[in-house]
Amino acid sequence: MLQRPQSLLLLLTSICMILYLATPIWHKVGVGEEAILNPYYLAHMKGTLAEVNKPVYYLAVLAVLSAGVSIFTIFQYKNRVRQMLFVALNSLIGAALLGTTVYHIQFEATKFFAPDQQGEFGIGFWAAFAALVFNWIANRLIRKDEKTVRDADRMR
């Protein structure tokens, strides 16, 4: 059924991934300089000119893939085992997305200027983290449903 709590959590997962695509992930502001990471590029700007503009489109591809897998998983409610498989796949995609995001922040973006200054995480970063948490909770609820069904079949 579509009105199960895990369906709502999977919908929230896809909404968080869309939010990840629409908002900045990380930024750092200095005197006359700014570094920005969003799902499409990593930029270091001095004044209004971009000194470094590195495309990171694979972050956007991973986010779209994760949102698509969670929407697809919602409609797999008739087969809970398949649904658990897709939720596990989505967890791997989300973990890869967060891992590459943190890599870009820690090893590339912070070194542009003032390496001792860390910068601030944007809404996009926290949205990706929330999507991973919602996905994990949905997986737990799907497993609980499967266990309940198996226990009921055993009692017959």
TrEMBL record:
Pfam families: DUF4293 (PF14126). InterPro entries: DUF4293. It comes from the Bacteria. Keywords: Membrane, Transmembrane, Transmembrane helix. The chain crosses the membrane at residues 7-27, 56-77, 84-103, 123-142. This is DUF4293 family protein. The lineage of its organism: Bacteria, Pseudomonadati, Bacteroidota, Cytophagia, Cytophagales.
